[in-house]
Structure of Spore germination protein:
Amino acid sequence: MLKTGHSWFDDAIEGCSDVRLEHLAAEAGSIVIAFEEAMIDYRLLYETIVPKWLAEERKEDGRRKPPYQTSELHQETDADKKALLSILFSGAILLFADGRVFAAGLSQIPGRSPEESSTEISVKGPKDGLIEELSVNIALIRKRLRSVDLKVQRFAVGSVTQTPVALLYVASRAKPELIEEACRRIRSIKVDALEGAAIEGLLQDNPSSLFPELDYSGRPDYLFEALMKGRVVFLVEGTPQGFVAPINMFLLLKSPEDSSMPYYFVTFERIIRLVGLVCTLLLPGFWVALSAYNPDQIPFPLLATVIQSRNGLPLSTTMEMTLMLLMFELFREAGVRLPRAVGQTVAVVGGLIVGDAAIRAGMTSPTMLVVSAITAVTSFTLVNQTLIGAVTVLRFGVLLLSSVLGMFGFFIGLFSLILYVSTLNSFGHPYLSPVSPIRWKDVLPALIRLPIRSRRGAFSPKRPESGSSQSEGKR
C-alpha cells in the first residue's frame, strides 16, 4: 500500500478508502499527493498543480520552492494535525515532499445551484433560495447588501465534525449586546457532531420550549430584511435554511412573500393567519366543551341539527373529535412521506373518501367532521413548521381539559397557554412583544403592514434603540 512517509497521517486515513494517494516521480524527488476523490477538481489538479510541481527544481538547501498555488502546513502539534485532516476533507489536496506537507485548494464539492425553496413558494418575489453550501448562502445575502456594514463571523462547531457556522448581522442595526449573546451561545455549544437544523434547539433560551424561539427561512430576501431590522442570522454548512433571532409570536405569522405583495392584501392575510392560529389550536376543545357540557349555549336550530346527527353514534363527543383529528394527522403525514406528485392528492382524496365513509358507517357525525376539517385546514395557514408541530400537540391538551372539565377546562387551557407563552424569551426579548410588555405605538404595526412610504426610514443606518424593531413583529 502506498505511504506518504508520515506515519501519523497514514494511520489516520486507515480505512478511509475514499482518500486517494498518488505517487509522482520527478527529477527533484518523488511526491505523494493525497485527496478525497469526490471533492476536488481533477482538471485543475492534472493541468495546473501536478505539472508545476514536477517542473520545480531544488534550491541550494536541497528543498523545492512550492508553486504559488500551494502553501506549507505545520504538523508539529495534535491541533496542527487535526487541522490538516480537516483541510483534506474540505476539498483540498495535500502534497508530501521533502518531509513537508503542502496544501492546494482545488475543491469541487458536490452540490446544487440556488433554486426556489420547495416549502416557501414565491409567487411574486425572488426565486433564488439557500442551498447546503455555506459560502453560496452568504453570497446570496451579500449580493443584496453590498456593504462592509454586513458582518460575517465564522465558527467551527462539533469536536468531531467541525461544522462551519456563520453569524451574520448589520453592524449599524444590531445591538452590541445581541451580537455578544449570539457569539456566546455559539461558542457554548459542546457536541461531537452538529447535524443540520439541530442548532435551532441548541441556541434557544429554553431547549425544552414547545414554541420555536428562532425563526427560519430558506429565502435570502427574507433573511436580508431580518438583518435590516436589527436581527442576527445563523447559517450552518449543510442546511438550506437560515435561522433568525430574536423573534416573537407575531413574526412567526409573517410570510417571506409579504414584502412582495400590496400592503392591504398582506394585512388581510396576516389577520387570516392569526385567526387560523386561534382556530386550529382552540376550536376542537371549544366545540367539545360547548356540545358536551353547555349545549344550552348553542343556537336552537344548530342544536337540533347536532342532536339529530348524533343519533345512534357509538362514540362520545370527545372520542369522535380525537378520532377525526388523528385521522387528519395521519393523512397529513402520509401526504408528506409519499412522492410529491401523489402525496397531496392522496391526502385530500383520502380524507374525503374516509370522512364520507365514516359518516355512512355511523362512526362520526357530519358536524364533528366539519369542525375537525376546519381545524386541519386552518393549520395550513401557518408559515413556521415548528409552530405547526407545537400547535398540533397543544391542541390535544386543550381538548383533554375541555373533555374533562367542560368550558371551565377550556379556559384553564387557554389561560395556561397565555401564561406559558408570556414567560418565553428569544435572546432576552419577550415572546409576546409588543403586546406584553405593552408598547402601544408598536401593536398596530405588528399586526398590519404599513404602506411603503410610511416605512421610508426602515433601512436607515441608525442603530435601533432599546426595545425597538428587534423585539417587534414588524416587517
Summary: Residues 457-461, 465-469 have pLDDT under 50 and may be disordered. Residues 187 and 208 are 20 Å apart (CA to CA).
